[in-house]
Amino acid sequence: MKTFVLLCLVALAAADQSARIVNYQYGIEEDGAYEAQYQTTNGISAKEDGISYPGNVPEAGNYVRSGSYSYEWEGVTYTVNWTADENGFHPVGDHLPDFSHTREHIGSIDDHQ
Ligand SMILES: *[C@@H]1O[C@H](CO)[C@@H](O)[C@H](O)[C@H]1NC(C)=O
After folding, report:
1. Residue 23 Cα, ligand 1 centroid: separation in angstroms?
2. Which chain positions lie within coiled-coil regions (predicted)?
3. Confidence (pTM)
4. Residue-range domain boundaries for the chain
């Protein structure tokens, strides 16, 4: 999912080839928790953090990640807050449809087994 977010941002950045990344910060702790953020000179900013924990597959563990990114398009700033965990990627934004009830409609994977 990181790839998806990154590709969206790269696509936006590609529209302005003179844009530069500024204020990039990244830190990771011994337990795997991390925080990262950056801005670009053409109005994109993004930040995220994550914690590592033993999840459904103990030997693999899992990450719970959350973050937000925003960008300007035709004078409007769009912001997406998101979380990502073993249940998927959950974006929230004023310009996005409300996905919060999707699971009620399609059921969880467990319901179909
Ligand atoms: C995103 O998170 C920020 C900070 O918590 C909050 O102020 C803002 O209202 C949130 N935006 C949306 C679309 O949920």
Report:
1. 21
2. none
3. 0.72
4. 2-108
